[in-house]
Write a structure and sequence with these properties.
heterodimer, A: 109 residues, B: 114 residues, mainly beta
Chain lengths: 109, 114
């Protein structure tokens, strides 16, 4: 599976959009981009995933560049409860998710 | 819906003791996983079971054994606990590990080995 690079930490004001970047320059054609988050040492929670088209669900939007070498997770209106560690994971043929260190997002009042 | 249930939630062991961490899922998922998370680190895969009757090593399998008891249950055993195994252990399940479906995680077992 391809390696991902994320900033270690980010801040966002409550009510504003949080844009979390992820680089995955070695991604191959059959690999999906997944996003999970972990709130205060709870079990990770699935957010969204995509292959090449942009995706949106009730939690977030996922924007994948045309060359698929990077992506951005967008939380449109961040709340204090969105403070968490966010993991960008590229998954292909290997069966399990490989977690890196993620981005620690702090949403401030 | 219970989802993925782990027991116990907390455990303290003495070095050399053994114990089994239990995990059960009620979503009829084929694939199950065990991860560990050390302070300030991401999750690392210990073992996984792609389907009932199969198990495979992950990134950090040394010191652990697993049993896929049936489709619902996947246990992790520490035969002789060591302080280096102090960690938070997460179990997860997914519909089919070869398809791109989401994984669901339990709330973790916090293990301290003294």
């Amino acid at each position: 599976d391809a390696k991902t690079t994320q900033p270690p930490s980010m801040d966002c004001a409550e009510g504003r959009a949080a844009n979390l970047p992820c680089n995955h320059s070695t991604i191959s054609g059959n690999e999906y981009v997944y996003w999970y988050r972990q709130i205060h040492s709870q079990g990770p929670q699935y957010i969204i995933h995509g292959l090449k088209n942009n995706e949106t669900n009730e939690m977030a939007s996922l924007i994948i560049t045309e060359d698929r070498k990077s992506s951005t997770l967008i939380l449109p209106h961040a709340t204090l409860r969105d403070t968490a560690v966010y993991y960008c994971i590229v998954r292909g043929s290997f069966v399990a998710l490989n977690f890196g260190k993620g981005t620690s997002l702090l949403v401030t009042p | 819906n219970a989802g993925v249930t782990q027991t116990p939630k907390f455990q303290v062991l003495k070095t050399g003791q053994s114990m089994t961490l239990q995990c059960a899922q009620d979503m009829n998922h084929n694939s199950m996983y065990w991860y560990r998370q050390d302070p300030g680190m991401g999750l690392r895969l210990i073992y996984y079971s792609a389907s009932e009757g199969t198990t495979d090593k992950g990134e950090v399998p040394n010191g652990y054994n697993v049993s896929r008891l049936n489709k619902r249950e996947f246990s992790l055993r520490l035969e002789s606990a060591a302080p280096s195994q102090t960690s938070v252990y997460f179990c997860a399940s997914s519909g089919d590990s070869r398809k791109n479906t989401e994984a669901f995680f339990g709330q973790g077992t916090r293990l301290t080995v003294v």
